[in-house]
Design goal:
By secondary structure, this protein is an alpha+beta fold. The chain has two domains: about 90 residues, Immunoglobulin-like; about 270 residues, Metallo-dependent phosphatases (Purple Acid Phosphatase, chain A, domain 2), CATH 3.60.21.10. The strands form five sheets. A six-stranded mixed sheet has the order 13-12-11-20-21-22. Strands 14-15-16-17-19-18 form a six-stranded mixed sheet, with no helix packed on it. A hairpin with a 6-residue loop joins strand 8 and strand 9. Helix 5 packs parallel to helix 6. The longest helix is centred in the middle third of the chain and has 17 residues. It is globular and about 65 Å long. The N terminus is likely disordered.
């Protein structure tokens, strides 16, 4: 679809802080609403109402809502309506809601057949304007992939909600997004509350998705150093990192996908399979690998079994196809690892660099023949590394 920014088209004026994010998680879209004040919220699709409630009680003492809608329903309806109702007084009898504000959105699903076009941003580190300009300058894509470190940390709500404002600026609530947590997203006071603001599978930041002919698995390494690193507090006095069990759980999750292949990555109509992770765990010389050097070998073994076409990552602040000799373990990856974002307009292949007001992202095209990629800067220029 042709991508152009759009303002919020509200019947009200203040209750929705930015456009919704429509995030792919398993068989659903998780529509995330960031409100300008605490409120109740619901989403209407083709006459069906989906609410944010807990045990039968509408959530009102929050300004962020996550509402699940089946992908098949929204893909068919191609439109949805958001209702936001501030609640001035949630008293025990006769609560007093304010007038409901309604927001109408058209929605364009990823094509069910043929090519799928995606744009990838990672490591925006609290920026919105220039990364959004980079994606919009390329235009003409169906799916937005945000591969972590979207905020600079999880220290404040403002950093966490960079995700919502960046998604809003690019998609306008009109087409889907996939989100991957980055290591900076695990740092700070809001890190333990991050699941309230981001798409998850029942709280887990790893999951699969299916859109059009593309199947993907989102993985999450957590931090990029061992849990015992002093950056996370001294373990003997109570460190804040506990990622090793979390990574081991993902090994079991990958095994379960293989055991249920016919209902996951081998389902009818799937022609391309990818893995998304903020950190390129196929780079062996990583300090977070020191305490369990075989863990990522297990991940690679299961991904080989799944037959992914590509592992797509951020983290390195550079772009290019990672050299095969970066991995020293066994088994070797039967797929390439693509690095996707840089903070400059003309990065060297696999080279880093930072320049204020500049950014480079990656445009992907999924075809029957494979995954094609091109790097584009914030001026919309394609970078030729041949």
């Amino acid at each position: 679809m042709d991508i152009t920014p759009s303002p919020i088209n509200a019947v009200g004026s203040v209750s929705l802080a930015c456009h919704p994010g429509v995030f792919l998680v398993e068989q659903d879209y998780e529509i995330i609403l960031l409100c300008g004040c605490p409120a109740m919220a619901s989403v209407v699709v083709d006459g069906r109402t989906f609410t944010d409630s807990i045990n039968g009680v509408m959530r009102s003492d929050t300004d962020v809502h996550k509402i699940k809608v089946p992908t098949s329903l929204l893909d068919k309806a191609k439109a949805y309506r958001v209702h936001i109702t501030p609640l001035a007084d949630h008293c025990n009898y006769y609560p007093k809601p304010s007038p409901t504000e309604a927001y109408e959105y058209d929605f364009t699903p990823v094509p069910a057949e043929g090519e799928v076009k995606a744009y990838v941003l990672a490591d925006t580190h609290g920026q919105v304007t220039v990364p959004a300009e980079t994606a919009l300058a390329h235009g003409n894509f169906d799916l937005l992939l945000l591969l972590g470190d979207i905020g600079d940390s999880a220290a404040t709500k403002e950093q966490v909600t960079t995700l919502h404002h960046l998604t809003s600026a690019i998609t306008g609530g009109r087409f889907p997004t996939v989100y991957v947590r980055g290591n900076h997203d695990t740092r700070g006071y809001m890190a333990e509350h991050l699941h309230e603001y981001i798409p998850t599978r029942s709280g887990a930041t790893y999951y699969t998705f299916r859109t059009g002919s593309v199947w993907g698995v989102v993985l999450d390494c957590g931090e990029d150093k061992p849990d015992t690193n002093i950056e996370y507090g001294l373990p003997e006095t109570g460190g804040v990192a506990d990622f090793l069990p979390f990574r081991n759980a993902q090994t079991d999750y990958l095994r379960s996908l293989v055991e249920n292949a016919d209902n996951t990555y081998k389902a009818e109509g799937i022609t391309r399979r990818i893995a998304l992770c903020h950190i390129n765990f196929t780079y062996t010389d990583r300090p977070f690998n020191d305490k369990n050097p075989t863990l990522y070998e297990k991940w690679i073994g299961w991904l080989n079994e799944i037959g992914i076409d590509m592992l797509i990552c951020g983290h390195e602040h550079r772009v290019g196809l990672q050299p095969d000799d970066y991995f020293h373990g066994n088994p070797t990856p039967q797929f390439g690892t693509l690095l996707t974002s840089a903070h400059c307009d003309h990065p060297k292949p696999m080279g880093g660099g930072h320049a204020s007001g500049e950014f480079t992202g990656t445009a992907l095209t999924f075809t029957e023949d494979g995954v094609k990629y091109v790097f584009t800067n914030h001026k919309g220029e394609e970078l030729d590394f041949s």
